[in-house]
Amino acid sequence: MALKKERGIVIHSMDFGDSDRLISLAGENHIRMKFISKGIRKSKRRPIASTELGSLVEIDFYDQAEKDWKSIKEIVLVNRYDHLKSNYTGTLFLMYLTELTSHLYPEGELHPFLHQLLSGSFDHCSEHGFRAEILPFFKLRALANLGHFPTEFYCVSCGEEVLAKSRSFFSWENREFLCGDCHTLPKDQSSMLRLFHQILKTRFSLFLAARPGSDAIREADYVLNQYLRSITGKEMKSYFEFYKTIGYS
Questions:
Q1: Ramachandran region of residue 108, left (φ > 0), alpha (ψ -120 to 50) or beta?
Q2: For residues 44 and 28, is the Cβ–Cβ distance under 8 A?
Q3: pLDDT digits over 60-80, tens only?
Q4: Is the pTM of this model over 0.90?
Q5: Total structural domains within the chain
Q6: pLDDT per residue over 105-137, tens digit each?
Q7: Same domain for 142 and 239?
Q8: Strand (E) or helix (H) holding 141
């Protein structure tokens, strides 16, 4: 029975039995899987915070092939993101991003970029406070990395780049880009698509430095939320309280 290590952020946590807790991680090195921390809810030695949503942890676990979950031998809390959790908006943001990542990240697959994206988002907001710009940035980067969003913006009909057209549109229902030369568009989303392109091509700090308008950020996030629902088929429990709190409801 091999002993292995993992470092990652808790994206799912569930009480099990009288004193155990099941978690899964957006990890650096292994596929997404379930881990069980036995007795941690009654332990005086191991911090229960290490199994909270959003906690960055390091674990030693037994790789038991015949088990549905892996037993944790040791768990170390690296970062609880206390500063981010020190206000209500930050706490809701952390819960929202971990739930979103949990819905997007299939068990049995390895996506270390999601760990980098999640930890980078929490680090930035811990240091600078929550910014609405991080919502479309996180979602689009995650979708593109998982293969759910194209990184080249070509019209489905003519095959030409829609960013070079005077009018363009993203049909999230069909997951297609349309240009105004080939289609009668319900609206022009050229500005939003240029924003999408910028997100995919630059770091978050440079994206912020370009000062995208609040209306453009809100529209981009709204469209991406519709797109996410079509992919996951799920409504998120944390969605309504978080969006009401940030004034997007």
A1: left
A2: no
A3: 998 877 778 899 999 999 999
A4: yes
A5: 2
A6: 999 999 999 999 999 999 999 999 999 999 999
A7: yes
A8: helix 134-145
